[in-house]
Design a protein that fits this description.
- This protein has 2 domains: 214 residues, Roll (Chitinase A, domain 3), CATH 3.10.50.40; 97 residues, no CATH class.
- Helices cover 11% and strands 24% of the residues.
- It contains 4 helices and 13 strands.
- The strands form 4 sheets. The protein has a 6-stranded antiparallel sheet with strand order 5-6-11-13-7-8.
- It is globular.
Length: 323
């Protein structure tokens, strides 16, 4: 499997990233219609791609630094210089679609290096990255050249949609000075419409309704379980729309990914794990004997009444491994 690292919560809480939703106390204004704004944003991005270019030496290059990823405007004559060495962005970007807040969006990715690791982050995992954020006029509004850890659910929507399409680094090495070197990381540039960024809020030097450009390197990731119920957060996205805020099986005030009893049947999700213990080295009940535990650590494969709904989402199944 891919590289696994243990992230400390404190590292997430103290880091101030411009891609976070709550950075710099964004100031809300009266919102434009999201569908109408997306048309404006998309036209602006397509115009940018047709008038900016990048060196071909950047593509498929696992050794490139963020500083070397230079996007240049066409000269005044509008002719691509050294066409055998450079490419217009419109010719090398990838186009993706997503629905967010009932609005259909298009966003774009320049894939520089896929990454050599065996695993990729889920849209809601914790990741270790370096990045640089730019406005379309080229101004840099934030950056972290050194590897930084953060939770993708604490970022603007576009990040989880893009980072999850790249692989983690192939390997890493801890240097004598305590720094870490990574081999073959995922490297790319994301181009996000304002609707997948801050939209009608401003954040620091980012104006309202700004399309954003992020260069990034993806080094490592770790699967999140935000409510510690042994159901990974990405599996709590029951409708598969990459939005955790509309998955609430029991219609209580708490969404599934933060709810320790997803079906509100009085039995905690973690205790509805009844499958035979498959890991005889983990002492789940803490009695000093790892061989007598009930449950395999996965509540999603327990369906006592065989109706196709796992116990932790089925109010008819209240059996507990503690019974």
């Amino acid at each position: 499997m891919g590289i696994k690292i243990r992230f400390f919560l404190i590292s997430i809480l103290i880091i101030s990233l411009s891609c976070r939703k709550d950075d710099n106390n964004p100031i809300a204004i009266e919102e434009a219609d999201r569908t109408e704004q997306q048309v404006i944003d998309n036209d602006s991005l397509l115009g940018y791609f047709s008038t900016h270019y990048i060196s071909n030496t950047i593509i498929d290059n696992q050794f490139v630094s963020l500083d070397e990823i230079i996007i240049s405007p066409l000269p005044e004559d509008g002719v691509l210089p050294n066409s055998d060495q450079n490419s217009l962005l419109i010719d090398v970007i990838e186009t993706y679609s997503a629905t967010y807040l009932d609005t259909d969006y298009e966003f774009y990715v320049l894939r520089i290096n896929q990454g050599g690791g065996e695993s990729s982050p889920n849209f809601c995992d914790s990741v270790r990255v370096s990045y640089e954020g730019n406005l379309m006029d080229g101004n840099t509004f934030d950056s972290s050249i050194n590897p930084t850890d953060f939770d993708l659910i604490a970022t603007i929507s576009g990040w989880g949609k893009v980072i999850s399409q790249f692989n983690n680094a192939e390997s890493f090495n801890i240097n004598d000075d305590g720094t870490v070197s990574y081999t073959n990381p995922g490297i790319g540039v994301m181009f996000l419409p304002s609707g997948l960024a801050y939209f009608s809020s401003s954040a620091g030097s980012v104006p309202v309704y700004s399309n954003l450009i992020f260069k990034f390197k993806l080094f490592q990731s770790e699967v999140n379980d935000h409510d510690n119920d042994n159901v990974p957060t990405y599996l709590e996205d029951l409708d598969g729309d990459l939005n955790l805020t509309n998955d609430n099986s029991d219609d209580d005030p708490i969404n599934n990914f933060l709810d320790s009893d997803d079906d509100n049947d009085g039995t905690l999700t973690i205790d509805e794990d009844l499958e035979p213990d498959s890991d005889l080295t983990v002492d789940r009940d803490g009695d000093g004997d790892p061989t007598n535990d009930i449950g395999d650590g996965d509540p999603t494969n327990d369906d006592t009444d065989g109706d196709g709904v796992p116990n932790y989402l089925d109010t008819d199944d209240t059996a507990s491994r503690l019974d």
